[in-house]
Every structure is written in C-alpha cells, then in structure tokens.
C-alpha cells in the first residue's frame, strides 16, 4: 500500500514571541527588539464574542509561520539571533513584562516530530525566555487515496 500525504493535511506551525503586561508601548518594543509586531491587543479588547473572551493584559506578538523551507530549528535560530543582537533591551523588557516564546503546531496526524539542535537550545537558554509548545492533533493516519486497499 502506498501512503501519500494529503496536501491539505500538512502541519500548520508557527513560532510566536509574546510580550504581555500593562501599558505596553508597542512601537517601543518593536524598535527595541528589531522585530515588527504581527498583532497587538489592549487589555479588555474582545478576542472572542461567544463565549466572551477579553484580553487580560496588553499583548504584543511577533509570529513566524513555519513551512517546509522554514523549519522550526532554522526559524527559531533566526529569531533568537535577532534577540541576541538586542540582549540588553530584551533584559530590560523582561524585567517589566512577561515574555514567552510559543510554538504552535496543528496537524491531522497522530505523531508529530520536530528536532531542535543543541546550539538552538543553548541560544534559547541564554535569552532566559521560556518555550511553550502547543500541539493540536486530530490523530488521523496519513492520507490514502480511494483506489488503494486498506490493510
């Protein structure tokens, strides 16, 4: 039996650098870190109407979409390199606000595999920024066409 991947079932992944706190100056954060925000929210802003969910604090986001040509390790290394270039300003921001690096993964597959190299983990440790990993998997098997026999 030949198994092929359904092109609509490729994992959707992203890295998100989140800075949260009270009275964030979004432009100052972007300038300090050399990163453009991809989204911002103010405390109390409606995120979802039903059920009603509001932002609990001001939030600044920098999101990096992960693709086959932009794998997790490379994308994380690039982001961490940018943060390392602004380490003093990053430290000042960390003293006042919450900073988290999140990796979100959505997939139809039951098993998802990512590898982070030791130098990437060392670079992450030097920033002092925690990494959160969120995986949403529907637990399906790889795609089969209708003309293949199931075994």
For the biggest sheet, the summary is:
5 strands, mixed
**End-to-end span in angstroms?**
8 Å
Give me the secondary-structure category. Answer: alpha+beta
Report the uncertain regions: 1-10
N-to-C series of helices and strands? EHEEEEHHEHE
What portion of the residues fall into strands of 2 or more residues? 25-35%
Count of helix runs:
4
Radius of gyration: 19 Å
Written description of the protein model:
The longest helix has 14 residues, at 72-85. It is flat and about 40 Å long. Strands 2-5-1-6-7 form a 5-stranded mixed β-sheet. Strands 3-4 form a two-stranded antiparallel sheet. Helix 2 (72-85) runs parallel beside helix 4. The protein has one domain. With 151 residues, the chain is of the alpha+beta class. The protein is built from 4 helices and 7 strands; from the N terminus they run E-H-E-E-E-E-H-H-E-H-E. The protein is 28% helix and 32% strand.
